[in-house]
Every structure is written in C-alpha cells, then in structure tokens.
Recover the amino acids of this structure.
C-alpha cells in the first residue's frame, strides 16, 4: 500500500502557484519523498525528490516539514500544461527495492 | 539522449493468447522496471531487471514474466491472457539498480484483451 495521503483533486488558476500537499506520517529515517506527475496518456515524469531539506529545481520546489511527516510540492507559476495527476511517493534512496509504490495521486486542473 | 521507447504502442489480443512487449531504456541505463496501470488498481510494480537479472518482483501471477538482454533492453511476456490484463504497461529505466529515484518512464504499451 502507498505510504502517502493526497487530496484526490485540486484546481489552480493559470499563472498562480499550485501547492500540492502530501501526508507521510509513517516515513522512516532513510526514506526520501519523491514527486512524479502523469499527464494524460503519457508515462509518469519525475519532478523532484528530497530527504529533509527543501529542494528546488527548474520544475518545482519541495517543502518538507521539520518532522518529515508531510510535504508540499509547489509549482510557482502553473500553466495549462501542468494539468496532470501528481504522485507523492516515499521510498528508500538507492535501496534494494527499486520499485515505486504509487498511490492515487492528486489530479491538478489548471484553469485559464 | 533519446528517451525510453516501448513497442508496440497499441496491441489488441484475444483471451488465452500470449503477448510480448519490448522496452529500450535510455542509453547507459542498466535498470529497467515494468509497471501495470489500470483505472481500478492504478500504477502497480511488476518487476525490475538489472544486469540481465530480475532483482525485484511485485505481486503478480507467474503468467507475467520478463527478461533483460545484455544491451539492457527488456521484454515482458504475459501468457494466457485474461480480460483483466487489459492495461497500460509502462517501462521505466534508471542508471543504477534499486534506484527508485529519477526513474524515466516510456510512453507505455496499451494492451486490450478481448
């Protein structure tokens, strides 16, 4: 079973920041938080990952709470092309389990 | 670099038949994982191959099998197809074994079993 809880859907206005929350209260010390997204009819796309520090790349920012029990993915200026299902996943980094356990994710709809 | 490629993109088979799907990972990537995606169950891990050896396996029946070649290309096979095997089959590659970070997914093969 997925170790994360995400809202099933969210709306965001184009050009505004999209803040996608994720709860992972049972995360263990060696587990990272990963975010992927899946645009309709495509394979999932890696966005970002982090352990305990906030992370930023060209796609998004990841904010992890100090107790690591929750995180937020931030798309700073959402566009219509960001409409997708966003998956928050916790997993060992480079551990023996090379698989990702996907939950149901959050369907983000960016509206004009 | 070229991305992960999967062939064929679409496939229609009949119950009881078998099917083989192919995946070519990103050049230099040695780990290939397979996932099944259905509307009811979502994305589920099938298995992972690294250096021609299956390293991890999900909770699927033995009708689902795979292999990896020396050039890291991978195939998965489903025998005795059932209607419930209709799904999008996704392949993902990454540079290292067990690297659940930054897996790069292909576009998938849409399998329809009638």
């Amino acid at each position: 079973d997925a170790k994360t809880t995400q809202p099933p859907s969210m709306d965001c206005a184009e050009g505004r920041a999209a803040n996608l929350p994720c709860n992972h209260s049972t995360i263990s010390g060696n587990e990272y938080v990963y975010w992927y997204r899946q645009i309709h009819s495509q394979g999932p796309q890696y966005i970002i990952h982090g352990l305990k520090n906030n992370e930023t790349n060209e796609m998004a920012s990841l904010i992890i709470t100090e107790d690591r029990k929750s995180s937020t993915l931030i798309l700073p200026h959402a566009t219509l092309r960001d409409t997708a299902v966003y998956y928050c996943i916790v997993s060992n980094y480079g551990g023996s389990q090379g698989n990702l356990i996907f939950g149901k994710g959050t369907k983000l709809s960016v509206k004009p | 670099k070229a991305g992960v490629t999967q062939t064929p993109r679409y496939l229609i088979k009949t119950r009881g038949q078998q099917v083989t799907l192919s995946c070519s990972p990103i050049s230099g990537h040695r780990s290939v994982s397979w996932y099944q995606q259905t509307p009811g169950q979502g994305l589920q891990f099938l298995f992972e191959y690294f250096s021609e050896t299956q390293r991890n396996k999900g909770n699927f029946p033995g009708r689902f099998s795979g292999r990896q070649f020396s050039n890291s290309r991978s195939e998965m096979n489903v025998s005795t197809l059932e209607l419930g095997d209709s799904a999008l089959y996704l392949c993902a590659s990454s540079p290292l074994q067990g690297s659940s970070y930054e897996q790069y997914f292909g576009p998938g093969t849409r399998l329809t079993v009638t």
Summary: The mean pLDDT of chain B is 92. The longest strand of chain B covers residues 42-50. The interface with chain A takes residues 4, 31, 33, 35, 42-45, 48, 50, 55-56, 58, 90, 92, 94, 96-108 of chain B (CB under 8 Å). Residues 18 and 79 of chain B are 4 Å apart (CA to CA).
